[in-house]
Design brief:
The mean pLDDT is 95. This protein is α/β, with parallel strands linked by helices. Strands 1, 2, 3, 6, 7, 8, 9 and 10 form an eight-stranded mixed β-sheet that branches. A two-stranded antiparallel ribbon has the order 4-5. The chain has two domains: 3-117 and 269-332, 3-Layer(aba) Sandwich (D-Maltodextrin-Binding Protein, domain 2); 118-267 and 339-375, D-Maltodextrin-Binding Protein, domain 2. It has helices at 13-21, 35-47, 60-69, 85-91, 98-103, 145-149, 170-180, 197-208, 222-231, 244-247, 281-294, 297-306, 318-323, 327-336, 347-361, 367-375; strands spanning 3-8, 28-33, 55-59, 105-106, 109-110, 113-125, 139-140, 236-240, 258-263, 268-274. Strand 1 (3-8), helix 1 (13-21) and strand 2 form a beta-alpha-beta unit.
Length: 377
């Protein structure tokens, strides 16, 4: 049979797609669909009597706990006894970054084979900032951003900063500020805490940074941040580690002028592949065996080259770090990263949080009104 994998249109997945094409003996293919269509297609696959896809891409702690709680995914421990032990040994689980591997587990069992990460990396123009070389930023407390932005020496038409504040991005863009101000998403009893005084202050601070940004920063997503940095329009912005390679590619005339850092409190998620439970045991085992071969160290280094955000320790060697200037910040990010709450009940707040954080940012309501409104849902 032809093994089919479903994934969204992330540049890092081009690596897996090519890997499958290079190995026709695996008889497997990756179907990449627009992000806007992805979750609907995933839900349809899980609801079918037998999944039309033998593996699916999942964003770690964001979706994994809920899918496992609903019985949609197969635990790898149930399948690995029937996978060739040599394939498992060659995969070398010990080479996976510890924080990445942790995100692949639910209740101590692995449900995700990691492919790439997506966490906060800050890109800034070294040549435009009045800082001695010895003071270059490697980790940035988001509360210190205004003082740093004041040090940029810019010409007309340039902006010190941009926020990825599109309604589909703004919640994750705000998280490093929430955590830097001491805010949390939930308290010790797993009850909402995102309307605390610290959280409200963090959202007010985040919104105040608009004064340093292009006037349409509320429309900025990945593409707008990338274009702004590569064109010289903006001097500093945060984006994902998986955008580092496209931002700093040979098409960027300023690529040698960029420094990279991460926040003191970055967010990250690990994207990987999971096995739908609604298929035969033999199909699940065969699919996992193919994935263990595909997700090898060479593929991970290709993820660095095309996207920027590998998951293996060996991809952060001194040699690789010399080749790719952002890897030091990427590794620091993975070691510092904080996750969203992983209990499935929290998921119901995510959509309203995106909408209401955006409403506060655009001035439709105050930060206090916006966050307290979500708690009442």
């Amino acid at each position: 049979m032809k093994y089919k994998i479903l994934g969204p249109d992330d540049p890092a997945l081009a690596v897996l797609q090519q890997q499958l094409k290079d190995h026709p003996e695996w008889d497997a293919e990756l179907k990449i669909v627009p992000w806007a269509e992805y979750q609907g297609m995933l839900d349809t696959a899980f609801q079918a009597q037998q999944s039309p896809y033998q593996a699916v891409c999942v964003p770690g702690h964001i979706w994994l706990p809920g899918l496992v709680a609903d019985g949609k995914l197969e635990a790898f421990d149930n399948l690995l006894p029937d996978v060739n032990s040599q394939l498992i040994q060659q995969y070398n689980l010990a080479d996976i970054m510890p924080s990445v591997y942790h995100e692949c587990l639910v209740n101590g069992e692995q449900y995700l084979l990691p492919l790439f990460s997506d966490g906060h990396i800050v890109f800034y123009r070294i040549d435009l900032i009045n800082l001695p070389l010895s003071d270059q930023v490697s980790t940035l407390n988001s509360r210190d951003i205004p003082a740093l932005l004041e040090k940029f020496d810019l010409t007309s038409g340039q902006y010190p900063f941009a926020l990825k504040a599109h309604t589909s991005e703004i919640l994750l863009d705000w998280l490093p500020y929430l955590w830097a101000f001491g805010g949390r998403m939930v308290d010790e009893n797993l009850q909402p805490a995102f309307n605390s005084g610290a959280a409200i202050q963090a959202l007010e601070f985040y919104s105040s940074l608009k004064r340093y940004c292009p006037p349409d920063t509320h429309l900025y997503g990945n593409v707008e941040i990338l274009n702004g940095l590569k064109s010289g329009k903006i001097a500093m912005a945060a984006s994902w580690g998986g955008q580092a390679a496209p931002i700093l590619d040979e098409g960027n005339p300023f690529r040698s002028d960029f420094g990279t850092a991460t926040f003191t409190h970055p967010w990250n998620t690990t994207w990987g592949v999971s096995i739908p439970a609604n298929q035969t045991e033999s199909t699940k085992t065969s699919m996992l065996a193919i994935l263990y071969q595909a997700a090898d160290p060479q593929q991970d280094r290709e993820v660095t080259r095309l996207a920027g955000s590998p998951v293996r320790l060996s991809s952060y060697s001194a040699e690789e770090m010399r080749k790719y200037s952002w890897l030091k910040a990427q590794k620091e990010m993975l070691e510092r990263r904080t996750l969203l709450p992983t209990h499935p009940e929290f998921a119901r707040y995510l959509g309203p949080l995106y909408a209401n954080v955006y409403a506060a940012f655009t001035g439709e309501m105050t930060a206090s009104e916006a966050l307290n409104r979500v708690v009442k849902i």
